Every structure is written in structure tokens, then in C-alpha cells.
């Protein structure tokens, strides 16, 4: 019997399942070009970080805090109000139509549904990103020329209150 076989026999089925899930996450990270992943489920936190830009060499840190030892959690911070516009694709976000030009939108600008708020370059193609909510830009959550993933938050848009 090898050391690995001996170790597998001493590991509970639940632990083996978690280990297999982590291996699957690492494989998905490598295939999707993701270098970092933080996952929290209940009292377990898994942090995966690729080394040298490769998720296939990811280091794994798993924290398990038993409920009896866990300190009371501070009250959750209130999420800022507004709708978050997210990236519809993987690519590089650009805030302006071209270098040296003003950005499409800035914090404080009122925007409408369908208005161009940025560009994401994917495979040498410039894709205009449009607002899916109208309101006032309250936060820009991505830097110019920053890589983004599918679902990455781009900006927060607060509702506009019109008084008559």
C-alpha cells in the first residue's frame, strides 16, 4: 500500500469530497484563465491563488472555524444602494472610446438604459457595453484598461428621484 492509499483510507468521505471539489475548481480555473478564487460556504473558506499566472499550480488555503470557537460576526455592512452593471464577457475594460478622450461616463453622470458606458476588448474586437439600468453613476468599480471576467462589477447606478 502506498502512502497516498494509506492517507486516503484515513480521510473521511466528506473530506475526500471536499478535496475532489477543490481539484475540480483548480481545473476550472486553469481552463477559464482565472488566477484567483475566494469561496466561502458556511464556516469554511477556500482561497485559491495561481502561481506565475497559472491556476494549474494553484495554492490552496482552507480555513474551517468550528461554530463553538468562532467569534461573533460583526453585523453585515449595508450594501450601497443602486444596481450594479456587470461585464457581459471576459476581456479588457476601457472607459473611453480611445486614448486621450474623455470617459463615456463619470461618477455623478445620469445615464439611460442602452447608453454606452464603456468598451470591452475581447479577441481584438471592441464591444460597446451599454447600461442595463438608468440612474446616476454612483461608483465606478473598474479601472481603465483593467481585465474583467464575465460578471465582474463595472459600475453602480443609483435610482434618480424626480420631484414634480
Structure overview:
The strands form 3 sheets. Strands 4-11-9-6 form a 4-stranded antiparallel beta sheet, with no helix packed on it. It has 2 domains: 3-64, no CATH class; 83-158, OB fold (Dihydrolipoamide Acetyltransferase, E2P) (Beta Barrel), CATH 2.40.50.100. It is α+β, with helices and mostly antiparallel strands and 164 residues long. The longest helix has 20 residues, at 13-32. The protein is 17% helix and 38% strand. The termini are far apart.
Q: So how many helices?
A: 2
Rg to the nearest angstrom?
22 Å
Kindly identify the CATH topology of the largest domain: OB fold (Dihydrolipoamide Acetyltransferase, E2P)
Helix percentage range: 10-25%
Query: What share of residues are in beta strands?
Result: 35-45%
Number of strands: 11
Give the CATH level 1 class of the largest domain: Mainly Beta
What class, by secondary structure content?
Answer: alpha+beta
Largest sheet strand order: 4-11-9-6
Mean pLDDT: 76
Helix-strand string = HHEEEEEEEEEEE
Query: What is the level-2 CATH architecture name of the largest domain?
Result: Beta Barrel
Largest sheet data: 4 strands, antiparallel
Distance N to C terminus: 80 Å
Looking at how many chains there are and whether they match, the oligomeric state comes to: single chain
Number of domains: 2
